[in-house]
Amino acid sequence: MQQDVERILFSESELVDAVELLAGNLTEAYRGSDLTVVSVLKGSCVFAADLIRRLPIPMELGFAVAESYGDGTTSSELSVHHFPAREELDGRDVLLVDDILDSGRTLSALRTRVLARGAVSVRTCVLLDKPSRRSAEIEADFRCFEIDDLFVVGYGLDFAGRYRNLPYVAELRAEVLAGSLASGSGEAG
Ligand code: IMP
Ligand code: MG
Fold it and tell me: Which band of pLDDT confidence, cut at 50, 70 and 90, is reported for residue 102?
């Protein structure tokens, strides 16, 4: 796996520091709230697991499973396979946590659903933000890093289902990306 990596963008220790800083901001923002964190799978599993353990405030946890079909590095059609029930969201302050805000279609669609299930508020929190690729009307309320228009993997982010378990965020070698582009992934989150 490591031999497929071109360069590391954010090391393990940079991720730890960024999550710590973000958790501090979230703690201030949600102190006294009825917070429900909704982790968008699969991509946010590592980030969300690290983040919630640094929130010293009461919260509940939910999951959404969203799958974007594409050619491997760009997303197109979105389908939502799992979503919290109304009882989990009604009257709650919901924080949608995802790995990356890219076109914005995933979080924009999920935000609409969260509000439709009675949430009092909904905000978005992402590890990475690629503002240059935005097509939907949405911004991250909380984020760790802004990046250029690069395809990255690791710390939960995949390419064709792989590399989620890399402990850092990295760019893959061009040959690796080119090698499987034709096969597509249909990988959730
Ligand atoms: P959206 O385009 O903002 O809806 O993002 C949809 C999903 O595309 C994200 O949750 C990720 O799963 C995936 N994605 C977008 N950019 C990248 C990337 O650079 N690496 C890995 N996955 C990505
Ligand atoms: Mg993905």
Answer: very high
